[in-house]
Amino acid sequence: METKLTINELATKVVEELKKMNYANNTVCQFRASFNRILSFAKEHNEIYFSEELGRQYLAEKYDCAINYYLQSFPQKCKHALRSVRMLGDYQIHGIIIRRIVKKKNYIKPPQFEQVLTAYEKECQDNEYSIRGMRTRLQRLFFFIDYLHLKNIKDLNEITPNIITDYVKTIYHHHEKSIAAILTTLRMFLRFSYHKKYTEKDLSLIVPKQNKYYYPAVPSTWKPEAVKHMLESIDRGNPLGKRDYAILILVAKLGIRAGDIKAMKLTDLDWKNMAINIIQEKTNVKAKYPILNDIGWALIDYLKNGRPANCESPYLFVRLNAPYEPFGKNANMNNIITKYTRKAGISIPPGNRHGLHSLRHALASTLLAQGTPLPVITEILGHIDSKSTAVYLRTDMDGLKECALNPEEVFDYER
C-alpha cells in the first residue's frame, strides 16, 4: 500500500520535480517559499497531510480568496499562492506537475511519439482541415502527449483505462464544451493510431463520452441602435479611424469572421461585380459577400486615404505603423471594438461577450427579428450546420412569446 506523503514530503517532491522540468532557479525558490508558508499554516491548524479543504482554507484566511480554483480564473493578487496549492494537489493525485495551459510555438515532440504525431499531422492535412482547426486540434493533443511524457509512458500501447481516467481528472474543471472537444480530439487520435497499426488495440474505445444534449449558451447580442451608435463614434477623419470603421462595418453588416478579415486580400475585392470572394478560414468553404453601398464607400475611403500609400502587402488590412504588415495570426482584434465601445459610452453587462464575434451575434438576431429564414442566416454567417444558427432562436424573445400556448385555450379544446 502506497504511503501517504506529509505536506513537507509532498513539497520536497514537487520542488525536485520542478528542477527536473528545468524551471528557473528563482522560480523554484519562490515556490519553495510558498510551500513553506502553506506548511506553517498547516502546523497552526495541527494538520500533517495536504488536502483540498486545507488548501481552500489557506487561501481564504491568508489571501481572502474563496474562489473555486478549478472553475474560476486566478485573481492576480493571489495567483502564485493558488498555483502553489494546485501543484501540491495535482502531485498528490497524479504524481506529476500538470503544466498550465500555455499555447506553445514550435512544439517539440517527445521522441517516443514523434513518428505517430507527424503521421497524424499529415492525416489532418490530407483531410484538408483548416489551418485554424488543425492548430487547435493539435494543441489539445499535445497536452495529452505531455501528460504521457511526464508519466514516463514510452509507447502508446502502455496506455491503460486508468491513465485515461487520470488524464480526464486534469481537465474536468474546463467548460463542458471544452471537455467534449478535448475528448473528441483524443478519441480521433487513438482511433487513427489503431488503424495505422501504431497500437495493438483500439484505445479510442476507453475514452469516456459525455452524455449531454447539444445545449449551447444563449449568444450575447447588441441592440441595433447600440451598434449604430458605436460605429458613429469612430473618428473617420484619420487613417486609423478609416481602417477600424471598415473592419467593424464588415463584421456588423456582413457577419464576416475576424480571422477572415485578417486574411482578406486586395484581390478578394471584386469591384466589377460588387462582391467580396473569400475562402473561410474556419470551414474552408468559399463565401461570397455583397459590397453594399456603405461598405463600398468605407473600403474606398480606407484604400485611398487610410492605407499607407507605400505599403506592398497583398493583404487588405494592415498595421499603420512601419513596417506596414498584416495583423498577426493570433491577433483577435477585440481591442478595436473595445476602444469604440468605451468611446461611445456603451455599457456591456458583466458576463456578456463584447468582442468582434458579438457583432455576428447581433447581426443574426437582427435578421431573425426581421423574419429572415434560418437557412438564409446560416448561409450569411457561413455556418456549415443550421444547428449552429438555431441557437439564435432563443434570443428572439418576441417571436418565442408568439409561440407560447394559452393553457386555458388548450383545456377548452380538450373539453
From TrEMBL:
Entries under Pfam families matching the protein: Phage_integrase
Identification of the protein by name: Tyrosine-type recombinase/integrase
Tyr recombinase domain sequence ranges: 217-405
Organism: Clostridium thailandense
One MF term in the entry's GO annotations: DNA binding
GO biological-process terms attached to the record: DNA integration; DNA recombination
Coiled coil (residue ranges): none
Domain named Core-binding (CB): residues: 111-194
Keywords: DNA-binding
InterPro entries: CB, Integrase_catalytic, Tyrosine_recombinase_XerCD
